[in-house]
Amino acid sequence: MDRLISTLSDVEARFNGGNNAQKANLTHLLELLSRADSLRKDILGVAEVFPVLAETSNENLQEIETTVFSVVQHQYTPLKTRTCPICAAQSQTIFDFFAHYQGKLAEDNNVRQAFVVSKGFCQVHTWQFERIASPQGISEGYVTFVETVASELRRVASLPRTQSIKAIGNFLPAGQTCLACRLLRDEEVIQRERFLGYISTTDGQEFYRRTLGLCLSHLQAILVDNPPKKIREFLLLEQARHFEDLSEDMRNYTLKRDAIRRGLLNSNEENAWRRALVQLVGERMAHKE
Predict the structure, then answer these.
(1) Which residues make Cβ contacts (< 8 Å) with residue 106, sequence separation at least 6?
(2) What is the DSSP letter of 55?
(3) Is the pLDDT of residue 241 over 80?
(4) What gap in Å lies between CA 173 and CA 96, rounded to an integer?
(5) Buried b vs exposed e over 154-172: b needs ≥16 C-beta within 10 Å?
(6) Residue 80 structural domain
(7) pLDDT top residue among 51 and 93
(8) Is 99 in contact with 73 (CB distance < 8 Å)?
(9) d(CA 186, CA 272)
(10) Which residue of 67, 115, 224, 287 lies most exposed, with the fewest beta carbons within 10 A?
């Protein structure tokens, strides 16, 4: 059956780009190829995903995820003066998760199996994890994933090109399945609710005036939650003022540096460039795909 599918695929490649008669034959060939592939799956029970999926039930996955997420305490500091408060909470959450997860991944085979099923971390969180985990921890934790990918590539090597492409897509990381992305999404929902509760108080609004405020991404998310008009206007006007203060600090920083008057720089001017980036795109560790 594999030889038949391989032969049909070779013929398909030769017919592509041919004349009209060949293109008409190609339609019938593709139908035959599809039927042959379906028959092969019926006979062999070939899965379109990692074989490890059959070994890990949904109940086991949920139990494992509950265990590895249990370290997260959803700590909340109402507002941070030098960064976005929601970003700050997410950054602490993801750091705590990575610090805990690297040990579980290295020590627990069930966690490693679940890691394979979730297709690892997305690109962003893979490299954030690399900065926190040790080389030994990564080697021990990722070995099952790497071995599974190797086995899967060997399995699909003899399949038609389109099937090989689809099979590779089954183990490419994605934000939808990345544990870290999911954790950050959940944390954001929790922190948005807490933020809205605090900013609705007189004390919360007074303190917010003395902070850097929300980044644009989380400001938009808060507005999506449909707060009262008074709160919405307060947040937008305060954030406009924060950006105006930042621009003034950045201009002063440039002028004093150009004039070789670095000694006159104050702390606000000295790190205004970084605070501006946080306001525009959020903290690095709070990113998700």
Answers:
(1) 136, 137, 140, 141
(2) G
(3) yes
(4) 22
(5) eebeebbeebbeebeeebe
(6) 48-289
(7) 93
(8) no
(9) 30
(10) 224
Residue pLDDT, tens place only, 245-280: 888 888 887 876 655 555 555 666 666 757 777 767
Over range 62-73, report the average pLDDT: 56
d(CA 183, CA 122): 13
Whose tokens are 């899967």? That residue is 152
Those residues whose C-beta lies under 8 Å from the C-beta of residue 247, and which sit 6 or more positions away, are 276
Task: Return the DSSP state at 1.
Answer: -
Q: What is the mean pLDDT of residues 88-109?
A: 89
Residues 38 and 156 reside in one and the same domain: no
- Any idea which of 87-101, 164-178, 263-277 has the lowest mean pLDDT? 263-277
Give the total number of structural domains in the chain.
2
Same domain, 129 and 76: yes
Residues in the chain: 289
CB of 24 closer than 8 Å to CB of 34: no
List the structure tokens of 80.
């941070």
142 and 60 share a domain? yes
Structure tokens at 210: 């003395």
DSSP for residue 209: T
- What's the pTM? 0.67
Torsion of CA 121, 124, 128, 129, to 10 degrees: 10
User: How far apart are alpha carbons 171 and 69 in whole angstroms?
Assistant: 23
Residues 6+ apart with CB under 8 A from 97: 68, 69, 71, 72, 179, 180, 183
Both 39 and 84 in one domain: the answer is no
Q: Which residue has the tokens 């991404």?
A: 217
pLDDT in tens, 37-66: 555 444 433 334 444 444 444 555 555 555
Q: Which of 36, 13, 7 is nearest to 26 (CA)?
A: 13
